[in-house]
Design brief:
The complex is a heterodimer of chains A (301) and B (274). Chain A is mostly helical and 301 residues long. Chain A has one domain: MetI-like (MetI-like fold). Chain A is built from 13 helices and no strands. Chain A is globular, with a radius of gyration of 25 Å. Chain B is mostly helical. In chain B, helix 4 crosses helix 6. The model of chain B has no long low-confidence stretch (mean pLDDT 88). Classes of the chains: A mainly alpha (301), B mainly alpha (274). The interface between A and B is large, with 96 and 99 residues.
C-alpha cells in the first residue's frame, strides 16, 4: 500500500500535467457543441416525424426506419456495402502490389510514388467530374471517342447501372490507392532485408518469401488499410454525387446520397436522421467485426 | 539482393507502366483544357491549337477567385483552432492517470466512430438560429469539432510514446511553472506530430464538399469545391472550360504537395497508422 501511494505521488510530482486539467476545457466544449450533443439530437430525431415546415416533431418510434427500408433504402444499403467491399479488395490488392514494386530497386521510385499518391490530395468532387467526362455518353465521352476511332461500338457507361457502378469504383480506386500504397510502404520499412536474404539463401522463392516473411510483418499495415478503405467506402458521397448523382434511375444511390436528398431536397429531416443512424450503426458494427478478426490474425502471425 | 537483368527490366516496366496508367486521366484533363471550345478531336489526341483562353474564362466567369480566399480562410482558421485546442487537451489527457482523465480521453475517441452526417443535421438548425448559414464561419465551427478527436488521438499517442517525462521534470527543477514547462518544453517537442495534424486536417478540410453543400447553400461566399459544383452546373457540357476550372482549383493544393511531398506522404503514412 505505501508503495502504490509513493508511486502515485512520484508520478504526479514528475509531470506538471495533472494540475493543468483545465487545458482540456476548450476542446471539450467545442467537441460537445459540434459533435456529441448534435449526434444525440440526431439520434433522437430519427424516431420523430420531423419535416421541413412542419410543427413540433412527434415521437413515431421506428416508423422512419420502416418507411425508408420499405422504399429504396434497402437497395441503397446493399449497393453501399457492395461498393465498400469491392473497393476494399481492389484498393488493397493494387496498393500492396504497387508498394512491393516501388519498394524494390526502381530508378526514380520516389517520383513514381509522388505521382501515384498525388490524387489523394485533390478534391474527390474534381476527380469525380474528370471521370464523368472520360466515361461520358457516346459521342462526347473520352473513352467513347477512342472506341469510335477504332470503329468499335460505343458504350453508354453511365446509362447502365452496372457499368456506372464500375466507373464509380474505378474513380474511388484511382484516387485512394496511393494512400493505401503509402501505408504498405511504411509497413515494408519494418521488414528487415537480412531476414529476406536469409530466406532467399535457404532457397525460398519470391512468393514463399512474401507469404512467410513479409506478410506477417505487414499485418498491422493490412489491418489499418482494410479498416480505412472499408470506412471510406461506406461513407462515399462526393464521387457518386459528381459522376452519376445516383442515376440512372436512382440505381447508383448510396445511403450517404439518400441522406443528402432526404435532408436538402425533400426536407424529411426525421427520415434523413434515421438513415444516418443506420449508416452509423453499420460502420460501427462492421469496423468492430473487421478489427477483432484482423487483430486476432495479427496476434497469430 | 541480386536479381536477374530480365527481372529488373520487368519490374521497371511494371512500375512505369502502372504509373503511366495513373497519369492518363491527368493527361486528358490538361489536354482538353488547352483546347479551343468546339474542337471535337478525341481527348486522347494532343491538342493542335493550344490556347489558354479557357483558363482566362474559367477564372473570370466562375466564383473561383473569391472561393480560393474563402477556402484559405476556412482551412487556416479551422486548423488553427483544432491544433491549439487539441494540443492543450492532449497534454493532461496523456499525462494524467486519473479515472476522469481516461474517461474524457475515451469520450473524445468515440468521436472517431460517429459519422458526421448524423450530427450535421441538427447542427444545421443551431447555425440557422445563430444566423451563420451561408457564412464560412459556420464551417470553421463544424470542422473544429469534427476534426478534434483525431488530432487529440494523434497528439496524445505521440506524447505517451515519444516525449519522455524527464524533460518536464528537469524544467520544473529549474524553476519553471507548470504552464511554463508545457509551453516552453513540451510544445516545441510536438513539432512532428503537429505537422502531421496540419497536413491531415488541412487536406480533408480543403477538399470537403458535403458540409459546404449543406451549410453554404444559397450563400454568396463559397469554398472551392462549391465553386466548382456551381460552375459545372452552369456550363454542364463545355468540358474544356470546366477542365480549366478543375485545374485552377487543383493548383494551390498540388503546388503545396509537390513542395512538401516528403512530409505529406510521411504524415499520411505515420498519422493514419496511428
Amino acid at each position: 500500500m505505501p508503495e502504490t501511494v509513493r508511486r502515485t505521488r512520484m508520478r504526479s510530482l514528475r509531470s506538471p500535467a495533472r494540475s493543468l486539467w483545465w487545458l482540456a476545457i476548450p476542446a471539450a466544449i467545442v467537441y460537445l457543441y459540434v459533435v456529441l450533443v448534435p449526434t444525440a439530437q440526431g439520434a433522437y430525431f430519427s424516431f420523430t416525424d420531423w419535416i421541413a415546415g412542419g410543427g413540433a416533431p412527434n415521437w413515431v418510434g421506428l416508423d422512419n426506419f420502416v418507411a425508408v427500408f420499405a422504399g429504396d433504402a434497402g437497395a441503397a444499403a446493399g449497393r453501399t456495402f457492395a461498393i465498400a467491399l469491392i473497393v476494399v479488395v481492389i484498393q488493397n490488392v493494387v496498393g500492396l502490389g504497387l508498394a512491393l514494386l516501388l519498394n524494390g530497386r526502381i530508378a526514380g521510385r520516389n517520383v513514381l510514388r509522388t505521382i501515384v499518391f498525388a490524387p489523394m490530395v485533390v478534391s474527390a468532387l474534381v476527380v469525380g467530374y474528370l471521370f464523368k467526362y472520360i466515361f461520358g455518353p457516346p459521342g462526347s465521352g473520352g473513352v467513347n471517342a477512342v472506341l469510335a476511332l477504332l470503329g468499335a461500338p460505343q458504350v453508354d457507361f453511365l446509362g447502365d447501372p452496372t457499368l456506372a457502378m464500375g466507373v464509380i469504383i474505378l474513380t474511388i480506386v484511382w484516387q485512394f490507392t496511393g494512400s493505401t500504397m503509402v501505408i504498405y510502404l511504411a509497413g515494408l520499412q519494418g521488414v528487415p532485408e537480412e531476414v529476406n536474404e536469409a530466406a532467399a539463401i535457404d532457397g525460398a522463392g519470391y512468393w514463399k518469401r512474401f507469404w512467410y516473411v513479409t506478410r506477417p510483418l505487414l499485418a498491422p499495415a493490412i489491418t489499418i488499410n482494410l479498416m480505412l478503405s472499408l470506412i471510406g467506402g461506406l461513407k462515399i458521397f462526393d464521387q457518386i454525387f459528381a459522376v452519376t448523382n445516383g442515376g440512372p434511375g436512382g440505381q447508383t444511390k448510396t445511403i450517404s446520397l439518400m441522406i443528402y436528398e432526404y435532408f436538402s431536397l425533400f426536407g424529411y429531416y426525421g427520415k434523413a436522421a434515421a438513415l444516418a443512424v443506420v449508416l452509423a450503426v453499420a460502420i460501427g458494427v462492421l469496423s468492430f467485426v473487421q478489427f477483432s478478426v484482423l487483430r486476432r490474425q495479427e496476434r497469430q502471425s | 539482393m541480386k536479381t536477374s537483368l530480365s527481372g529488373r527490366i520487368g519490374s521497371h516496366l511494371a512500375a512505369y507502366g502502372s504509373t503511366a496508367l495513373f497519369l492518363l486521366p491527368v493527361y486528358i484533363l490538361i489536354n482538353l483544357s488547352i483546347r479551343p471550345v468546339g474542337d471535337l478531336t478525341p481527348a486522347f489526341i494532343p491538342s493542335s491549337h493550344a490556347t489558354l483562353d479557357n483558363f482566362v474564362n474559367a477564372w473570370t466567369q466562375s466564383s473561383l477567385p473569391g472561393a480560393i480566399v474563402t477556402s484559405i480562410f476556412v482551412t487556416v482558421a479551422a486548423c488553427a483552432v483544432v491544433i491549439v485546442f487539441a494540443t492543450m487537451a492532449a497534454y493532461p489527457l496523456a499525462r494524467s492517470t486519473s479515472r476522469l482523465s481516461n474517461a474524457t480521453f475515451y469520450l473524445f475517441m468515440v468521436g472517431l466512430l460517429l459519422p458526421f452526417q448524423l450530427g450535421l443535421l441538427p447542427l444545421y438548425f443551431q447555425m440557422r438560429d445563430l444566423g451563420l448559414l451561408g457564412n464560412p464561419l459556420s464551417l470553421v465551427v463544424v470542422y473544429a469539432g469534427v476534426q478534434m478527436p483525431f488530432s487529440i488521438f494523434l497528439i496524445t499517442t505521440f506524447l505517451r510514446t515519444g516525449v519522455p517525462l524527464e524533460y518536464e521534470e528537469a524544467a520544473r527543477m529549474d524553476g519553471c511553472s507548470n504552464l511554463g514547462a508545457f509551453w516552453r518544453v513540451v510544445v516545441p517537442l510536438l513539432r512532428p506530430v503537429i505537422g502531421t495534424c496540419v497536413i491531415l486536417n488541412g487536406v480533408s478540410i480543403w477538399n470537403d464538399f458535403f458540409t459546404p453543400l449543406i451549410y453554404l447553400a444559397g450563400g454568396q461566399q463559397v469554398t472551392i469545391p462549391m465553386a466548382i459544383y456551381q460552375f459545372v452546373g452552369q456550363y454542364s457540357s463545355n468540358w474544356p472550360l470546366i477542365f480549366a476550372s478543375l485545374i485552377i482549383s487543383m493548383i494551390p493544393v498540388l503546388a503545396l504537395y509537390l513542395v512538401f511531398q516528403r512530409y505529406v506522404i510521411q504524415g499520411f503514412a505515420g498519422g493514419l497508422k496511428g
